[in-house]
Structure to design on (673 residues):
């Protein structure tokens, strides 16, 4: 019984202690510095959605930062004990202060190695509840921004003793030295609410570069606080603010004008000009007029100012006539006035009013059809931006003033080796559409030149290398004699191709060593070489440029015509008597393609042949065979005339043909009584 009571008392005591701790935590709220975690799943916003079962732990670099200072809020996201995938979206939101990257109440970051962070700041004291959301997992922490703690009595552990210089330009960029006591890293310096860049630091000196500030168009100066943070972003952070100790002061600048571009324009005005110089200070007014001997412009017209910076003003010219003043066709002075400081400058002979745009000279007047030629156009009234064409082809402007334009010629589409026709130079002021033409420009084509052919001679079917001057590339085409080939480029301007083996070579007489028959053989021959530029279609032909050695040098004899072919060319059998037939001599001439003109003869009967050429057969044979030889050209014909009575009353004459060893034998045989 006593043991049971003791156990019950211990259990009751533990339960009461747990309830007490929970109650205390509920009264005090959530600890702002203790990391906490939550698990859950779903689809998040931004980045890669975390898998179900994510755990989020949120920590703060400083839970109680000073006003105008910062604290880093870090979210560590894990999945089953491992870092969440890179790119997982994490949303940070606050109900007080702002995040520095968005200058708003929310920002979205993504994880790297399972970690994402955001920087929170505030300009006044207060409490911020920061919510970190990953998917539908939410975690909250509290950040309390506080004013600087009171300085304890005795020698200060951290103080600012001097700031030098105490003035600077609104554009910033100047070095300011802050001296003091017990500076400790990290340090931050604010000019008003703008962060300065710390360039060096010791325990007694901080050097910073002033940030820029916008004073507006009418304010000449503004005094700002300088706040120094010691051990910024840590739990030991402290700050000192020196109120209104630095003055941003508009400089008192005296303008100085160097030049105006363009330096001329039409009397109608509306020319956009750029005024180059220094000391320009907005607000600025610009005038054209006639300068007096004592300075200033007694009569003037005002330009419309578009933009102003320290060294450049962009303005638009007014018409040359205004307020009772005429500046038509005059060289005028330019006056620049810095309104805020009432400082001014006058540039005599700064701009010429005149007629509308004119082109007075163009040079050079021709350029390569490949483009890239720099051409200068002189004149007046040019107004950047401009559009320029040379012989109808758009050019690229690289420099424009009121009196001169420099362009780079474009590349025309060529229809043949002759190139495009010459054409005028045209300039258009794009903003007002004014166009003028003047001068003529011609695109020229540089024709290719064959500078090398190797080897010489080259064997049929062998590789030939040809060198071409100029920047030639692409599917280059060559022609050897009448044979077309495409070459391969092996280096700039150097091409190779296989020489055709089916070229028609010159021949020379020869004798077949086997048959002893006369014939012909191929011999090395020089052929013309033609090159065609694929880009322009231009060609070059060199006569007898390539000497080619034939692959077949055998002696070729003339084939003997078949007997049947020769017989088919002879007339049909003819009767004796008055019939006139082509003579065997004529037949031999046709076969041999040589000899005297054709002749005829008449077969009268056995042993009787008459006609203009009968004598070629010798005396009329009485009956036995008679043979005559006819020689001419490359062959010899033998004609055997035989008349043998075979039957009474039969009078016919027949031809017969035989061939032997290249000799054509044509026999005329007569039969009858």
């Amino acid at each position: 019984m006593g043991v049971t009571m003791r156990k019950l008392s211990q259990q009751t005591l533990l339960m009461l202690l747990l309830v007490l701790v929970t109650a205390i935590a509920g009264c005090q709220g959530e600890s702002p510095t203790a990391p906490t975690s939550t698990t859950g799943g779903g689809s998040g916003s931004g980045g890669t959605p975390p898998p179900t079962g994510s755990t989020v732990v949120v920590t703060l670099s400083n839970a109680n930062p000073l006003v105008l200072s910062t604290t880093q809020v870090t979210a560590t996201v894990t999945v089953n004990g491992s870092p969440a995938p890179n790119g997982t979206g994490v949303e940070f939101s606050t109900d007080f202060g702002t995040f520095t990257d968005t200058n708003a109440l929310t920002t979205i970051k993504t994880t790297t190695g399972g970690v994402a962070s955001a920087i929170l700041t505030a300009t006044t004291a207060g409490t911020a509840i920061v919510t970190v959301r990953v998917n539908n997992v939410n975690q909250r922490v509290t950040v309390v921004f506080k004013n600087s703690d009171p300085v304890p009595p005795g020698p200060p552990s951290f103080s600012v003793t001097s700031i030098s210089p105490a003035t600077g330009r609104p554009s910033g960029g100047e070095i300011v030295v802050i001296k003091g006591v017990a500076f400790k890293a990290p340090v931050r310096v604010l000019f008003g609410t703008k962060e300065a860049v710390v360039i060096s630091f010791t325990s007694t000196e901080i050097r910073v570069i002033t940030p820029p500030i916008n004073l507006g168009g009418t304010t000449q100066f503004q005094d700002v606080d300088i706040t120094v943070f010691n051990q910024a972003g840590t739990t030991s952070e402290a700050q000192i603010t020196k109120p209104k100790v630095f003055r941003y002061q508009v400089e008192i600048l005296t303008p100085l004008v160097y030049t105006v571009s363009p330096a001329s324009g039409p009397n109608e005005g509306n020319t956009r000009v750029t005024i180059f110089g220094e000391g320009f200070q907005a607000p600025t007014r610009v005038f054209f007029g006639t300068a007096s001997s004592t300075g200033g412009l007694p009569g003037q017209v005002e330009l419309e100012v578009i933009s102003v910076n320290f060294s450049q003003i962009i303005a638009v010219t007014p018409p040359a006539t205004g307020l009772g003043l005429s500046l038509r066709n005059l060289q005028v002075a330019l006056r620049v006035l810095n309104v805020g400081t009432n400082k001014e400058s006058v540039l005599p002979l700064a701009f010429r009013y005149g007629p509308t745009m004119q082109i007075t000279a163009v040079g050079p007047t021709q350029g390569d059809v490949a483009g890239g030629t720099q051409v200068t156009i002189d004149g007046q009234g040019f107004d950047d931006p401009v559009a320029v064409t040379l012989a109808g082809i758009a050019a690229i402007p690289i420099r424009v003033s009121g009196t001169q334009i420099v362009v780079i010629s474009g590349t025309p589409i060529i229809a043949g080796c002759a190139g495009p026709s010459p054409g005028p130079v045209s300039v258009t002021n794009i903003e007002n559409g004014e166009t003028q033409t003047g001068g003529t420009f011609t695109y020229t084509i540089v024709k290719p030149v064959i500078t090398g052919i190797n080897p010489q001679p080259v064997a049929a079917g062998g590789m030939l290398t040809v060198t071409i001057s100029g920047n030639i590339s692409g599917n280059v085409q060559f022609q050897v004699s009448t044979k077309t080939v495409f070459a391969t480029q092996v280096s700039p301007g150097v091409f190779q191709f296989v020489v055709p083996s089916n070229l028609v070579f010159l021949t020379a007489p020869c004798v077949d060593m086997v048959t002893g028959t006369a014939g012909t053989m191929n011999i090395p021959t020089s052929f013309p070489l033609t090159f065609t530029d694929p880009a322009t279609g231009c060609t070059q032909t060199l006569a007898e440029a390539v000497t080619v050695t034939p692959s077949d040098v055998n002696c070729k004899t003339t084939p003997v015509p078949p007997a049947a072919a020769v017989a088919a060319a002879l007339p049909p059998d003819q009767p004796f008597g008055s019939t006139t037939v082509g003579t065997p001599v004529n037949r031999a001439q046709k076969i041999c393609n040589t000899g005297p003109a054709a002749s005829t003869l008449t077969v009268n009967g056995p042993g009787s042949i008459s006609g203009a050429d009968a004598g070629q057969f010798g005396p009329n044979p009485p009956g036995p065979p008679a043979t005559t030889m006819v020689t001419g050209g490359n062959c010899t014909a033998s004609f055997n005339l035989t008349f043998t009575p075979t039957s009474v009353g039969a009078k016919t004459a027949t031809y017969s043909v035989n061939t032997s060893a290249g000799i054509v034998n044509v026999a005329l045989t007569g039969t009858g009584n």
Q: What stands out?
A: The chain has three helices and 58 strands. Residues 1-47, 570-673 have pLDDT under 50 and may be disordered.
